[in-house]
Amino acid sequence: MHLQYLLPVALAAVAAAQNRTLAQAIAGQSSLTTFQSLLSAQPDLVRALSNASSITILAPSNDAFSKFLSTTDGKAASAQPDVVAAVLQYHVLNAEVPGSAFTTTPQFVPSLLTNSTYANVTGGQVVEGVLNGKTVEIYSGLKLKSTVTTADITFQGGVMHIIDNVLTIPPSDAVTAVDSQLTSLAGALTKANLVTAVDDLKDVTIFAPSNDAFKQIGGTAESLSTQQLTTILEYHVIKGTVGYSTLLIGGLANETLPSLSGAGLNILIEDNKVFVDSAQVTMADIIVANGVMHVIGNVLNPDNTSATPNPTATTQSVAFAGATSAANAPFTSGINPTTTAPAAGITSKAAAARQTGAIGAAALFGGAAMIAVNL
Ligand SMILES: *[C@@H]1O[C@H](CO)[C@@H](O)[C@H](O)[C@H]1NC(C)=O
Ligand SMILES: *[C@@H]1O[C@H](CO)[C@@H](O)[C@H](O)[C@H]1NC(C)=O
Ligand SMILES: *[C@@H]1O[C@H](CO)[C@@H](O)[C@H](O)[C@H]1NC(C)=O
Ligand SMILES: *[C@@H]1O[C@H](CO)[C@@H](O)[C@H](O)[C@H]1NC(C)=O
Ligand SMILES: *[C@@H]1O[C@H](CO)[C@@H](O)[C@H](O)[C@H]1NC(C)=O
Ligand SMILES: *[C@@H]1O[C@H](CO)[C@@H](O)[C@H](O)[C@H]1NC(C)=O
User: Fold this and answer.
1) How far is CA 273 from CA 54, 180, 276, 315, 358, in A?
2) At 100, phi and psi to the nearest 5?
3) Which one in 34, 141, 227, 232 has a CA-CA gap of 20 to 30 Å to 347?
4) Which listed ligand is nearest to 125 at the C-alpha?
5) What angle is formed at CA 166 by the lines to CA 164 and CA 168, rounded to 5 degrees?
6) In this structure, which residue's CA is closest to atom 3 in ligand 2?
7) Whose CA is nearest to atom 6 of ligand 6?
8) Domain ranges of the chain
9) Residue 45, CB half-sphere, CA atoms under 13 Å: how many?
């Protein structure tokens, strides 16, 4: 056959593809039958989606759902229509992002998940999307990775990508800290009775010192008064700004942001590294229920707001003059990390290599119970 005959047929196919309804687009994919049946049990969401424009659907494959549902918590979740609705809402992005729009610079795209039972982020909880080589990767709670396996299935209201892992709704700050081996921070928040106060805030940026950072001042830290500890911890929290890495590197570079303690935090970008005061961000962009958490290599000192980094050094000086270190991470007694989540300080790429499944589901659905028991 000649090209001139093929071309109109091909164009018609494209037009038909773009003019498909969402239901037709899903029905056309043999790997989306579980997604289809879960969606069909959510008439409110189906109605909203059928009428939506400029959205992106991240559709987990049947394999992704069977991994998810093979866990005890995933199975329990699937029996709760409210939870299923929230999980599905997190898989719908409020912008049309075709595969070609993802770049090596991360993008934080808001989803339809706005219910404050699950997220306290203005405009909806986000996913992080980034291009790694030729692969589009989507990061959700606990920095768990989903990979786009089939991109750009178009329909009237937008575009759909098939992903290989169900997204994890980002857990609270305290659950995320425990699950990310930031057990000193979790313990310190507990000791200062700040867990609920911080978890209930809306739109936060949390600078989370690693356990090694706490160890550096561990000899002194345990003897701080509750008031001193509270002020120090509050100095690690910015309220009212969700400072994803792109924002820190962009509009917030060289800015001083007010922390909960009242003192200002200085954001500095030097030598391609991100610093807050003198502490380096060692792992960026762990999405949490109420914003974003960045792991840092030093505990910040609210009485040392003029501390500046040595950008070419691999580690930074302790920001508390005279503080003594400890062999073990302080505040961790009674707090047991439940997973082998990324140890603080490793790169996000390494963290990203982790598998989802039991970990994500446990954190999502068992997290609240776990924190109550362990903290
Ligand atoms: C798309 O479908 C609608 C009806 O569902 C129709 O009115 C419209 O003409 C179609 N558009 C194209 C470009 O085929
Ligand atoms: C669909 O959207 C239009 C325009 O936004 C609105 O007028 C209409 O009521 C919506 N229909 C449904 C079924 O939600
Ligand atoms: C928010 O989530 C809760 C718990 O799942 C649910 O009971 C409630 O109906 C949801 N609210 C909305 C507006 O969907
Ligand atoms: C959101 O904040 C409210 C209090 O403002 C709190 O009750 C709720 O638990 C928070 N949601 C999450 C997911 O932490
Ligand atoms: C931040 O300040 C440094 C030193 O004053 C300057 O060289 C740099 O251009 C500033 N960066 C931005 C993004 O304003
Ligand atoms: C402030 O932090 C720097 C490290 O950035 C440290 O050398 C200095 O001793 C600290 N000063 C006080 C008063 O804690």
Assistant:
1) 35, 21, 10, 12, 33
2) -70, -15
3) 232
4) 4
5) 135
6) 51
7) 319
8) 3-163, 182-336
9) 25
Structure tokens given for 163: 């992903």
Ligand 6: which residue has its CA nearest to atom 9? 321
Query: Cβ neighbours of residue 43 under 8 Å, at least 6 residues apart?
Result: none
Ligand 6 geometric centre to CA of 309 (Å): 10
At residue 222, the pLDDT reads 85
pTM, whole model, 2 decimals? 0.88
- Name which of 111, 161, 109, 107 is nearest 131 in CA terms: 107
pLDDT of residue 347: 31
Atom nearest to 268 CA in ligand 5:
1
Pocket probe for ligand 5: among 247, 254, 272, the residue whose CB has the most ligand atoms within 8 Å is 254
What is the C-alpha to C-alpha distance for residues 128 and 135, in angstroms, rounded to an integer? Answer: 14
- Superfamily of domain 3-163 in CATH is FAS1 domain (2.30.180.10)
Mean pLDDT of the chain: 87
Structure tokens at 30: 């043999």
CATH code assigned to 182-336:
2.30.180.10
